[in-house]
């Protein structure tokens, strides 16, 4: 009996140590799984950042190519202007030396030379405005991407195409199927977009609604035309009433199913076509002002 008691006293610490070690081991396993999950999330964030960086670099390269082409064209025009100036000046001097040119004809040629000089200034102004516009568009895109964060590219896509900034937001992020009421998640995203646009008071934009080619049959609205318009006006109202954007700077439009970006024969294509697009309208008045005659 005494021996049994002694053996139990010896075995008790071993059992206690075994239980404690098992708990520590399980806790370590749990911590390890949590760390692995966090690592996966962080790796996903890194991949999203790298994708966004690659897209910005692609857009930057495209803008640089456009700018280089514009500079080449302007250089060619300048060469033509220089040639015409030199040629006209030479002809004018020759005619004056021969005394066969009337005063009115000489004055006419002189005005033509002045017009060529004015066109030279116009080209330089145009080049300056184009460079400024490209810089503003890239800054706007970077601000929008920074404000929105790491939302999946399939849900929201921001790009510059031919000098125009587009913000494409997927249907599943904004609306429930066949509906035109804004979801709570969409209001948060629209708030981030609105915060950037509000800091650019001169910007005007249009909100376009787009659908796939599946016929709308709710009964309240007539067709996809109606649905796309109701969705665009729903977005505009949120931007105006909830986030304080100037309604004079906004326009709402519906394109229905008639401007697809993918093939409607697949579910993936239909999902891409169901979208709302915010188009930052180019400020054409600045270019029209360049075309106006200068006041003396």
Give the CATH class of the largest domain: Alpha Beta
Spatial sequence of strands, sheet with the most strands: 1-2-5-3-4
The CATH architecture designation of the largest domain is 2-Layer Sandwich
Uncertain regions: pLDDT < 50 for 5+ in a row? Answer: none
Separation, N- and C-terminal Cα atoms: 123 Å
Describe this structure in words.
The chain has helices at residues 2-98, 103-148, 171-174, 184-198, 224-242, 267-273, 284-291; strands at residues 156-161, 164-170, 204-210, 250-254, 275-281. The chain is an alpha+beta fold and 296 residues long. It folds into 2 domains: 15-134, no CATH class; 151-291, OmpA-like domain (60s Ribosomal Protein L30, Chain: A), CATH 3.30.1330.60. Strands 1-2-5-3-4 form a 5-stranded mixed sheet. Strand 3, helix 5 (224-242) and strand 4 (250-254) form a beta-alpha-beta unit. The radius of gyration is 33 Å and the shape is elongated.
């Amino acid at each position: 009996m005494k021996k049994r008691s002694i053996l139990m006293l010896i075995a008790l610490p071993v059992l206690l140590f075994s239980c404690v070690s098992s708990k520590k081991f399980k806790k370590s396993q749990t911590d390890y799984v949590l760390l692995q999950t966090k690592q996966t999330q962080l790796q996903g964030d890194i991949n999203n950042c790298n994708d966004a960086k690659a897209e910005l670099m692609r857009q930057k390269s495209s803008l640089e190519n456009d700018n280089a082409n514009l500079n080449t064209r302007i250089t060619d025009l300048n060469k033509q202007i220089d040639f015409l100036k030199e040629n006209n000046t030479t002809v004018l001097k020759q005619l004056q030396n021969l005394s066969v040119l009337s005063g009115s004809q000489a004055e006419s040629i002189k005005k033509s030379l002045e017009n060529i000089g004015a066109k030279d200034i116009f080209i330089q102004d145009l080049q300056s405005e184009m460079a400024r516009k490209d810089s503003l568009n890239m800054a706007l895109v970077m601000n929008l991407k920074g404000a929105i964060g790491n939302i999946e590219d399939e849900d929201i896509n921001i790009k510059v195409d031919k000098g125009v900034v587009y913000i494409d937001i997927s249907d599943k992020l904004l609306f429930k199927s066949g509906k035109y009421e804004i979801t709570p998640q969409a209001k948060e995203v629209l708030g981030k977009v609105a915060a950037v646009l509000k800091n650019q008071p001169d910007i005007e934009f249009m909100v376009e609604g787009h659908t796939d080619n599946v016929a709308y049959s709710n009964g309240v609205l007539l067709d996809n035309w109606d649905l796309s318009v109701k969705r665009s006006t729903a977005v505009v109202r949120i931007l105006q009433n909830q986030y304080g954007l100037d309604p004079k700077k906004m326009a709402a439009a519906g394109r229905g199913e008639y401007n697809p970006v993918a093939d409607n024969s697949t579910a993936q294509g239909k999902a891409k076509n169901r979208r709302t697009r915010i188009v930052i309208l180019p400020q054409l008045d600045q270019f029209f002002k360049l075309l106006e005659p200068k006041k003396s």
